[in-house]
Design brief:
The protein is of the alpha+beta class. Helix content is 70%, strand content 7%. It is built from 12 helices and 5 strands. A 5-stranded mixed sheet has the order 2-3-1-4-5, sandwiched between helices. Helix 12 links the parallel strand 4 and strand 5. Helix 2 runs parallel beside helix 8, helix 6 runs antiparallel to helix 7 and helix 7 packs parallel to helix 8. It is elongated, with a radius of gyration of 29 Å.
């Protein structure tokens, strides 16, 4: 370190020491306040992630019952038990979070009760004897799906409340930074008034760096976290500038982490279902307005549940990651690859007709079929394979649900036709 502030203020060592001490104390208070803000951001981030996970688990919970009525495979009961355990654990973690509003507490109680009731409905279905083509169970399935959707709406409401809390927290953090800026400005006025006779001697060593720091606080307070403080005095003021730079960097990383968590699947690192629905809705509105092409590919890993039953979920996750990597590196940069649910993936293909989409789907099928996945020999075909359904936009489609339904129907035909194939 170069000369300190006290040595720079020739003839005013005592006053310089008092100034330095005040600056350090206030900096400590400011940094402590910002660390408190960061901790609260972490808590809210964790809560939003737990609620997002709960939304996904609730949507997945009805799958074992639906699959059981289609296949009659009693192993779906094990999948059901696994999902119940995950949901119970997630609900328990959400309940431990403090500083809740009465509305949040009420929603959590309703969600807990609804989860118990949904379990009972699903248990009634997965314990049904002779489930395949059981017409009596169809009404129960509709009731179960409707109840699950209602429960998901409650969780969505909880998610909205958490997001509003995050927004409110951001506003409060901005106010704190603004208050910090005002105090710094006030301090600078007092400092310059008291040492006006030294202004020419200390201009380049103290006043100018502090003005730069003040401007940085103002810019950062307005939300520009890319701004960097440039202070090269080699003294305590430079340390303070570095702390502000570190603070801005940390806040930026946390903001990016929050945004990434909201749209990223935790296993495959692809986009999640939430982002997929938003992106597809944007593309759907665009093609409907401008009469352009749009295609959708829905993909399912063949016999994935069998692989999971034998090798358990950690091995299954490796398969999901491998398939996700193949999809992501094969499609165009303009395409959007996302994990839909469980072993299902979707690809949005803007400006793409049915012919190119089908050709791409066939290419993806071959890439996966000939990829050397570990432990693939236990699969019926001796390899990991995928089935793909392709659908394109037509003017008679009213919403993205229709496009998704068409792609899902094509996928179903591919599965019924023997798997490891593409259907449109």
């Amino acid at each position: 370190m170069k000369l300190g502030i006290g040595k720079k203020l020739i003839g005013a060592h005592t006053i310089g020491f008092v100034f330095f001490l005040f600056l350090i104390i206030y900096s400590y208070i400011t940094i402590s306040s910002l660390l408190s803000i960061e901790k609260k951001s972490n808590d809210l981030t964790n809560k939003i992630k737990l609620i997002s996970d709960l939304q996904i688990f609730i949507q997945q919970l009805v799958m074992p019952a639906n699959d059981y009525l289609i296949t009659g495979d009693k192993k779906e009961r094990e999948n059901f038990v696994y999902l119940v355990t995950k949901i119970s654990s997630t609900l328990a973690n959400i309940k431990t979070i403090k500083n809740k509003t009465e509305e949040e507490t009420l929603i959590e109680i309703e969600a807990d009760n609804g989860f118990i009731e949904l379990q009972q409905k699903i248990m009634g279905l997965i314990t049904t004897e002779n489930p395949v083509n059981n017409k009596g169970a169809a009404g129960l399935v509709e009731e179960m799906n409707a109840f699950a959707n209602a429960l998901t709406d409650k969780i969505t409401k909880l998610h909205e409340i958490a997001n509003k809390k995050m927004e409110h927290h951001s506003v409060e953090a901005f106010k704190i930074r603004k208050k910090t800026l005002n105090i710094y400005i006030f301090f600078m006025v007092i400092l310059l008034s008291g040492f006006i006779f030294m202004i020419f001697s200390i201009m380049w060593g103290i006043v100018r760096p502090l003005l730069n720091l003040t401007n940085a606080v103002r810019v950062i307070g307005k939300g520009n976290l890319d701004y960097k403080v440039k202070v090269g005095t080699g003294d305590e003021i430079e340390i303070l500038g570095d702390e502000f730079n570190n603070m801005a960097k940390s806040l930026k990383e946390k903001n990016e982490e929050i945004k990434a968590l909201a749209i990223t699947d935790g296993v495959t690192s692809l986009y999640n279902q939430r982002y997929f629905m938003e992106r597809l809705n944007e593309e759907f509105e665009r093609v409907r307005r401008y009469k352009r092409n749009l295609s959708l590919i829905m993909i399912d890993i063949d016999h994935f549940k069998k692989h999971n039953d034998i090798h358990e979920h950690p091995k299954g996750n490796e398969i999901l990651k491998g398939v996700a990597e193949i999809l992501n590196t094969t499609v165009r940069q303009s395409d959007t690859v996302a994990r839909y649910v469980e072993e299902k993936f979707v690809i949005i293909l803007p400006e793409t007709g049915i012919d190119y989409a089908t050709a791409l789907a066939e290419r993806l099928r071959r890439e996966v079929e000939f990829y050397d996945f570990p432990d693939s020999e236990i699969q019926p075909s001796g390899r990991i394979t995928i089935s793909l359904g392709v659908a394109s936009y037509r003017e008679d489609l009213k919403s993205i649900d229709d496009l998704i339904k068409n792609a899902g129907a094509a996928l179903y035909r591919a599965k019924e036709a023997g798997r490891n194939r593409v259907c449109t």
